[in-house]
Fold:
Amino acid sequence: MNPHLSFAELNARERVIQLLDPGSFREMLGPAERIVSPHLSLLGVPYAFDDGVVIGSGLLQNQPVLIAAQEGRFMGGGVGEVHGAKLVGLLQRALQVRPAAVFVLAESGGVRLHEANAGLIAVSEVMRAVLDVRAAGIPVVMLIGGANGCFGGMGLIARCADHVVMSDQARMSMSGPEVIESSHGVEEFDSRDRALVWRTTGGKHRYLMGDCDWLVEDDLDAFRDVAIALLGQSKVLTLQNLLDEQRMLTDRLSQVGDCDEATEIWRHFGVQTPDRVADMDAEQLRALNASQVKGIS
Amino acid sequence: MNWQALSLALFGELHAIARTGDVIHGTAQLGPELTIAVVGTADHAAIGVETALAQAQFVLDTVVNHPGRPILLLVDTQGQRLRRRDELLGLNRYMAHLGCCVDFARRSGHRVVGLVYDQALSGGFITSGLMADACYALPEAEIRVMRIPAMSRVTKISEDLLEALSLTNPVFAPGVANYVAMGGIQALWSGDLKQDLLDALAATNTVDARATLGAERGGRALAARVVQQVLVA
Structure:
């Protein structure tokens, strides 16, 4: 075991190297190949030699895996033409080599606005590629623990995967709080109210709702342990799965669709002390979910 | 074009398409033996949890009750609904579920065609039309993530530069022609709409060839090449 390593504080390449078995990571289309976005240089904006995403193969517990990690420090992890195509290529490669899992360390604001049209199409291409891999019985696992969260198109891609793992510091949703505030005002969503933002989009809320399957501490080894547990754990989408999801989402709307606050929702689902959730760590949350919470997917 | 005029142009009187809230849904006859399921949104709907769920329900009902029936997705949306309540309830999960249902229908032998008949913006488009076998648009439709003035504010790049670049590079500016050049839109429907639909149903392809199409058309030079490079890396 490593001494505690914060997943959030590592950069994308460090996360990949630390997550996999030592020395096993082989990067594809790495920075030396300089496959960069042609659109950013036209705009006079700095580009990155990996276009903000690290992809490659490696071993996890001696099992072959494919892996991608978005670099939140480059354009917020935004998906552009090259960035998206690297993800699609990795997923298509999974169909050929059949790894024990494909891991996506997602950290992204969604479509990169500097190349918005290409990014939008790319997100849908990634969604379809994820679903192709999933249909082939190869698990796609999203690991979400970066400071920038997982928003917009990446939030959609995450929910197409077999498994979603989040840290209690991570966030996942569609529109970010700033976008909602700028559209409907601070009364609608105060993006500077940190506690409100976390209650609405954070890992604990997503876990209590069942929108993420695993909740871990912001710790590299904690992510690694769950990643190992999910090797080979495919959840092929069947008609019955989709009908069950439809029923669950319908029930959620009818049961808690009028709630204004996450704490009301948690109480409805059986959390007896919703005001204490913010102070709980991931282990306490997991225990809570197992002992108290009923009626969540 | 509004959805009633579109339905009339596509199907004449031979349709039973209705509207419930922002969602339009129903069936139409394309021939004596050919019924098509139609679902989508109207009046630039904001896609919230209810709107996504209702469309998913319709797609699933079609898969369960009418195996193999082709599906037409009609797109007119201002994008995802920008409300705190929708995020609290997990809008990304609701929208992704819609996308998964469309994808499942395709895999189960339903031909799925998308049509942007008025406006398609960002997130509202990704989980509907862009998940079809192929997506088409009317020439007067508008597709975009963001208008140039807003993009200029977000990226801190002058409108003049963005406008100038958009003349030669389709990734920057709104417009259906740009999406055609990039392969995101298969083609524009500008003639006999019913015939265009029949041709589209005959031509559907379950393989995602949009990156290749974008390269052939010169609008997205790199995507297909990068995918190929990863496959042989």
Q: What stands out?
A: The beta strands of chain A are 26-28, 53-60, 63-70, 102-105, 140-144, 163-167, 214-216.
